[in-house]
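Human:
Class, as today's exercise, you are to examine the entry below, and be ready to discuss the fold:
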Amino acid sequence: MKRPIDPNLENFDDSLPINIDDVSERYTPVSSGSSDENGSPASQNENSTKADSEKSSEFRMKEKQYYHSSHHHSSHSSHSSHSSHSSHSHSSSKKKKKKKDIPTAAKIAIAILAIVLILLVAVFGTIFFLEHKGKSSLTNVTTQTDYEEKITYNGHDYVYNDDIVSIAFIGVDKRNLEEDNSSAGSAGQADANIVLTIDTSTGKAKAIAVPRDTMVEVPLYSESNIFLRNEEMQLCLSYAYGNGTDTSATNVTTSISRILYNVPINKYFALDLNGIAPINDAIGGVTVNSLYDFKDLGIKKGDPIHLTGSLTEKYVRTRDMDTVNASLNRTARQVQYIKAFAAQLAPAVMNDFSIVSSLYNTASEYSTTNISLSDATYLASLLISKGITDFETTTLEGEMKASTRIDYGDVVYAEFYPDEDKLMQTVLDTFYTKID
C-alpha cells in the first residue's frame, strides 16, 4: 500500500534507499574553466576544486542532518495522518451505523417488569417494617400486672417466660342482654373468652378457654369511667361494665388475667357476633364434626358440617338452657371452631400473605381491638416461619354450680369455680419455665 506523501518533502519518497553521496554529487558545483601547467587558471581551478571539495564535504554533513530530520518528520507526519484518517473513517462508520430500535412489545415488557420489581420491593419492605414494629409492640408489655416473676409450686421452681405473647379473644353478644341478667349494664356480654399464647422463641401456640360463667372479681366503673369497686360475678358480665368498646374489652382482659393468677395479657380482640359469618366466609368457610345435636337442622353429634353464613354463628352461639353445664358444651364448640379456622387460615396465608391485611380489614368492621396490622403481620410471619399450623387447646376444669344469690330472684344462674391446682398447673405450663 502506497504511503501518504509528506508535503514538506514535495515528491520525495522516503520508502526508497538513499545514498548520501549521490545526493551530494547532484549539488557539487562544476568548474567552467580549464587548467594549465603554470597554474593560472589551473591553479585557480585547483584552488577552486579544493574549496569546492571542502564545501562538498560540508554540504554532505548538512545533507545527512537534513535527511535524518526530514525522514523523522515524514514518518511522524505520515503516522499522524494515517491515524487521523483511520480514526475519521472509524468514526464515520459508527455514524453511518443505524441504531436498532427496541420493539414496542419489548419496551412494554421491560416497563411491566420494572413496575413489578418496584411493587415487590415496596411490599416486602412494608411487610418487614410491619413485622419489626409488631414484634416490638407485642414483646414489650407496657402495662404490667401484679404477677409473680418466680413461683415455687409442688417443690419446683418456675420463672416467667418473657417470650410469651398473649391475646384475649372475646366473643361479644349484645343481643337480648336483659334475658340473661337484668342487673348488668347494657354494653353486652363476653360469651366467648379464649386466651391465645405464642412463645416467640419456639413458635409454640396454645389456647386456653375460660368458661364465661367463671367467678371473678370484676372491676366496676361509673359512666364517666371512674373506678367504683370490685365485685365478684361471672366473667361474661365484665364486658357490660364499660363503654361497649375499648373500656369493656379492657375490663374483660383484666378479669381474665385475674383468673390466671395475674399473668400479663398483652392484647385483646373483641368480636361482635355479627362479624363471625363475614370473617368465616372470607376464607371460604370451615368444616368441623358437630359436637352438638341441632335437631331443627337435622344435624346430629358427630356429623361433618361445612360452616358458612349464619350457620357459623348458630354453631358457636347455641346453648342448651335446660342444664347448668350447658355453656361448657358451647365453650368446647368455640374452641373447636377457632382451631379449625386457624388450621385453614395458615396454608392460605402461606400461599397469599395479603390475606392477613384483607382479613384484618374485614374484622375491623366488627371488632374492638388494640392489635394493629403490624401486630397481625408479625404474628402471621412468626407462625409461618416456625411452621406452626396447629396449636394445643385446653379448657379450665372445675365445678359448675347453681347460683345462690337472692338478688337474682327465681332465675337460676350458673357459676363456674376452677380447680385451683389444675388452674395453677395450666398457668405454669403456659406462661412459665421450669428451672429445676
DSSP finds eleven helices and 15 strands in the chain. The chain has a mean pLDDT of 76.
